[in-house]
Amino acid sequence: MALYKHGNHLIHSKDVAFDATYTPGTATPHSGIYRCTGCGDEIASNAGNPLPSQNHKQHGVSQGAIRWQLLVYAQQQA
Ligand SMILES: [Zn+2]
Questions:
Q1: How far is the CA of 78 from the centre of ligand 1 (A)?
Q2: Ligand 1 center to 13 CA (angstroms)
Q3: Domain ranges in the chain?
Q4: CA of 18 to the centre of ligand 1 (A)
Q5: pLDDT digits (tens, 9 = 90+) for 6-62
Q6: Rounded to the nearest whole angstrom, what is the distance from the C-alpha of residue 68 to the centroid of ligand 1?
Q7: Strands (E), 1-78
Q8: Which listed residue, of 9, 40, 46, 70, carries a Cα 20 to 30 Å from 21's Cα?
Q9: CA dihedral of residues 3, 67, 46, 11 (deg, nearest 10)
Q10: Left (φ > 0), alpha (ψ -120 to 50) or beta: where does 27 sit?
């Protein structure tokens, strides 16, 4: 589970961007931290880069397929 210390720099959001899940190798839609819905592993990925597959640990049968879901959306200054 992701940790943070300074909560005043994080904002709770109900944006639909947090609802979608992505298969390994999909181009990262938004820079940020992603969580695997199968095993709970967390990774950081930059927009446009492929979401991990090869370097992600093997799943057991009960964990199902690797699916990445946005956990923390990194907002970049315009
Ligand atoms: Zn996983």
A1: 33
A2: 24
A3: 19-54+63-78
A4: 17
A5: 999 999 999 999 999 999 999 999 999 999 999 999 999 999 999 998 666 788 889
A6: 8
A7: 21-22, 32-36, 42-45, 68-73
A8: 9
A9: -40
A10: beta
